[in-house]
Amino acid sequence: MNNSHVLITGAASGLGWGCAQRLAAQVRKITLCDIDTDGGHRALAQLRQAYPQLSADFVAIDLAKPDQIDAASEQLRAANDPIDVLVNNAGIFPPAQRITTPQGHELTFAIAHLGHFRLTAGLWPLLQAAPRAAVISVSSLVQKNAHIDLSNLDLAHGYSPIRAYQQAKLACLLFALELDRRLQAGHSRVRSYAMHPGVCRSQLGANRTRQRGDGLLGWLSYWFLAKGMQFYGQTPEQAAAPIELAARGDYPAGSFLGPSGFLQYAGPTGICEPGLKAQDPDLAADLWRISLELNQIDWSPHEG
Predict the structure, then answer these.
(1) pLDDT the model gives residue 136
(2) Number of domains in the chain
C-alpha cells in the first residue's frame, strides 16, 4: 500500500478520521472529504504534522448536493492522481423529523447512498487507472433488520429516524454487493467491499438541538443515544480495522467485513453474513437502476 492514494468521505471526525489515522503511515496520499470545512482543515493539519512524509489534501463536499459532488469529482479528475482506495463513509444521524434535499430525497438516504453512488461514478476513471483499486462502502449492523420499499425510498410515508438509518445502511450494502457482481462479470481489476464498524464511538447527533415536533420522551431517547455513542464501543481507529484489511486485499472481493466478537460489536475482523434483504440480487439490481435514474447519470462500471 506504500504508493496508494486513499480518499475518505466523512473524514473530519468519527470513523472516517479513525480510518485516516490508521492508514496514514502506510500510504502515499490521503484525500479527506467532508462537509465540515473547518473540521476538515483541522484534520488535515493534524495529519500533516503527525505524518510529514504523507501527501494529504482536503476537498469540501456535501453529498446531499449533486452539483458539489460533480464539482469535487471534476477537481479530483483534473489532478489526474489515480485513487487506489475509495472509502464511502459519510453519513448523518437521522433527524427526528423528515428532511428532504432540493431534489426531494430523504436526507439520510441521499447522503449515505445516492451521494456515494454519484461520487463513485464520478471518480470511476481514477479508480480504473489504479493497478487494483478498492471501493469500500460503510454499512451497519442495523441493516439486518432493515426494510427497503423501492416505491417509498424518500420515506414520504412512515418516516422515523431508525427506519431512515436502517434503509440507508441497507442501501449501502446492496450497492457494494451489486457493484461487486458487475465488476466480477466484467473481469474488472477494481474490487468492491462492504464493512460495518460494530459499535463505534461517534459524534453523530451530538450537537443536534431539539426540533419542532420532537416529543419529550423521543427527544430524550435521541439525546441519550447520541451521548452514549460518544463514549461506548470501539474507538474509531479500532473500528476502522476492516477498512484497512479490505484496502490491503486481505479478503476476497465482495466480502462484507466487520468485528467477529460478541454480537459483532467488537473484536478481530472477519467475514460477516449480510442480512436477508442484502442478499437479494434482484433487489440490488432494482436499486441500482433506480439510483441511476434518481441521479440522472449513465454509469456501467462492468464495461470498462
Answers:
(1) 99
(2) 1
